[in-house]
Design brief:
Blueprint: H1 3-7, H2 11-34, H3 41-67
Length: about 70
């Protein structure tokens, strides 16, 4: 997931994306605990995607606060 793709989304879409990523991270942790995880690299990828979404949400919030 590219940061530019995320910047084009609305804050509501970003929050929905964040929720989906958090659910996926939970499922991946559960799979790792039970020994069913096939792609260990996906765990790190999801964590980085969550960080990207949070960063862009904070950028948008700061820009909105600065305008007001």
């Amino acid at each position: 997931m590219k940061a530019q793709e995320l910047r084009d989304k609305t804050p509501d879409e970003l929050r929905a994306q964040l929720e989906a990523l958090k659910k996926e991270a939970f499922n991946l942790r559960f799979q790792a605990a039970t020994g069913q995880l096939e792609s260990t690299a996906r765990v790190g990828q999801v964590r980085k995607d969550i960080a990207r979404v949070k960063t862009i949400l904070n950028e948008k919030a700061a820009a909105a606060a600065q305008e007001a």
